[in-house]
Every structure is written in structure tokens, then in C-alpha cells.
Amino acid sequence: MDSADGPVPHPVDLPNPPSDSWSDTVVIVRVYNEAPVVGGVISELVHAGLSVIAVDDASTDTSAEEIDKAGAFRVSHPVNLGAGGALQTGFEAALRFTDARYIGCFDADGQHQLADLLGMIRLMRQGYDVVMGSRFLDSKTEMSLLRRSILQTATKIMNRGEGTKLTDAHNGLRLVARHVVARIRLTHAGMAYASELEHQLTRPEYKVIEHPVHILYTDYSRAKGQPLLNSVNILADTITHRLTHGKRQ
Amino acid sequence: MIIKWLLVPAVILAVYTSLRARASLRGQARRKIVAFLTIVAGVIAVIFPDSLQVVAEWVGVTRGADLLLYALALVIIYLVGSTSVRFREQEARLVKLAREVALSEAEVRFRTRSLTSGGAPSSSSAPSAG
Questions:
Q1: Which of B105, B117, B125 sits opposite A15 (nearest CB)?
Q2: How is the beta sheet containing A102-107 ordered, strand by strand?
Q3: Residue A1 belongs to a domain
Q4: CA nearest A130: which of A167, A178, A89?
Q5: A3 lies in a domain?
Q6: CATH code assigned at A101
């Protein structure tokens, strides 16, 4: 029946079966108007044998088709919910449709490296609950001095009074155990979700570790992300979060 | 100046009650009572314009219009607070609804697909009862 569609490439509507070596992990990619790059990013994950759930946050371009072509399981929001909302949807989809032990987050814009994720999975298997990517564990990631200092300030504010000390509190590349994901409730739908997520990932009872990652600031992500202004947003969000939520319970 | 002893608690009360405005039955009833009292006070103030002046002088405000201004300020503070709380609650509801729609739609595709292709390949990606 799908062949009746003719030249239209039929969507792959199952989570792509992972290869045996990575069958314990499902990767969440949240997508909002990333049509030029998302296909390549997801294909790379799929070809590496990872199961991928892509959350299409009501993209207005052809992102949904690109996701289907690349072979990921697609969950499409009817209306745009923002980064935090999409991530929460991805978590719930992973819990509902898969029985993966580890759930990873990967950016759709191509700034994360597959090799870093695979390294994090290997580290995770040694018995951790959360593996966080960090840009500051080594100097592989090149970024401007201003950007670096803003992100490190945000991290310091985040860390105050928290159980686990992180060197990079706003890294999108994370790997989280299923039982931790089951407890995550993100109420901020927008960009401010990051502080909230970090808060819920670093409860004192979890074994959290960082893994050095290399972020590639491509021309595409630079053009899209307005990186520096976004760091200002992150800093402001973090301070607001600190003020309204106070110390960890 | 009685007005000081009235305004300070009133501001605090307005902020506090507006920020925890819930769609509870008690809250609704309270809002209806406030609305009714506002109408009564408005009618009285229109029919007897001097009454506002009398009340103003009694609480220590020079003019009746100033008293009205203070009352208006309190109302605006309450409105801003309760509207923002309502807005956020509404947004949270919308997020939940949209997420549920997205997940059910994905699940339908998931299931029809596994029927037509003769069952999902046995792997860790097989659905675990939604």
C-alpha cells in the first residue's frame, strides 16, 4: 500500500530498530525549522545504529519530511511549544514507545558530534544515572572569550548550593537513565527549561558525571542561534530561576 | 492618616490574592461578591457625588478623586497579577494538550504501520504498551 504512493518517499513510521550494540539507547532530537541540516544529522545517528525519536515542534518548513526520509520516528506538535516543551514530549515518547535504558538528547543543527554521544553511552554503561556533555573539560571547543565567560558565569550561578558541581550547565548533549527521565517534569516550555532540567537531573541521589564534548559552531548554527545574544538569555533565565526557586529543596 | 493603614495591607493583599488566584469555587464566589459591591459603590458614588468626598476626608485623603485613583491602582495590580497567573495556567494546559495530541497521532501511525508491515521488528524499540 505504501508503494502506491509512487515517487513520494514513504515515511518511516516506526522507531528505527537500533543495532545490537546501541540497543539500550534512544536519542531524542528536537527539531524546529531545521530542514537544511536535520536530515543529515538524523541519518548519521540512524546509520550508526541508534534508535531516534525526532520531535518536530510544529516546523513551518519541510523538516517533517526530512525527518521521515532520514528514518527517525517522528512526533509532531500541532502548535509550537518551545524547546522545553519539545524535550518533555521527546522524553514521554521515549518512555511510551521504547524500552530503552538510556535516553539521549542531541541537537538537530549539527553542532553535536556522534562520537561524543557514543562515548557518553559507553561511560553511562559503567553505572551512571546521568552523563552531561561539557565544553569546558578540555579546550577542543573553540568559542569567543566573551561567550565562554558568560556561559561559565551562568554555570557558577547554577551551581550555587547544588549537590553536583557541573562545569557546563547549558549543554544540549546529555544522556539520562530511564528512571531519571520518568521523574522529569519541565514546566517552562520555552528556553528557560535548561535551568529547570539541570535542577532535576542533578538530584543528590543520582550518580552524575560529565563527559568532554566538542561543539561545532558551524556557519549554519551561528546564523541560526545568534549565539552571543542567546547566552545573554541563558544568563538572565538562570538568574531569574535562582531568584524564584531559591535553593534546592 | 487612616488611608496609610488601609493602602499598605490592601496592596499586599491584592498582590497575594491575585498571584494565587485559582479557579476554585470559593474564589469565584469571592469575585462575584467583589463585583456586586463595586456596582453598589459605583451607583452610590454617582447618585451622591459628595459621598466619595466624605469617605475621602474620613480616611484622610484630600479629594474624593484621589481616593478613586488609589482604588483604581489596587484594581490594576490585582488584575495584572491574576491575569498573568491565569495566562500561565492556560499555557500549561495548552502544552499538555498539544503534547497529548502529538503523542496519540504518533502512536496511531506507529500501530497502523506495525499492522501493515506485519509487526514491528523485535527489538528494544518495540512499543511497550502505551
A1: B125
A2: A73-76, A51-56, A25-31, A102-107, A174-177, A130-134, A208-212
A3: no
A4: A178
A5: no
A6: 3.90.550.10
Task: Walk along chain A (249 residues) and give the pLDDT tens digit of each residue.
Answer: 444 433 434 444 455 666 667 888 999 999 999 888 999 999 999 988 899 999 999 999 999 999 999 989 999 999 999 888 999 999 999 999 988 999 999 988 888 889 999 999 999 998 889 998 888 776 656 667 777 777 777 666 655 545 556 777 677 899 999 999 999 998 776 666 777 888 888 888 888 888 888 887 777 766 665 556 767 776 776 676 666 555 443
Whole-angstrom Cα distance, residue A208 to residue A66?
34
User: Is residue A4 in some structural domain?
Assistant: no
* Chain A environment of B113 (Cβ under 8 Å): 13-14
- Tally of CA atoms within 13 A in the half-sphere of A177 that contains its CB: 16
> Would the CB atoms of B107 and A26 count as touching at under 8 Å?
no
Domain for residue A74, yes or no? yes
| CB-based contact A75 B103, cutoff 8 Å | yes
Residues listed for chain A: 249
Number of structural domains chain A divides into: 1
The predicted model scores a pTM of: 0.72
Q: The domain containing residue A145 runs over which residues?
A: 9-245
Q: Which residues of B touch A57 (CB under 8 A)?
A: none
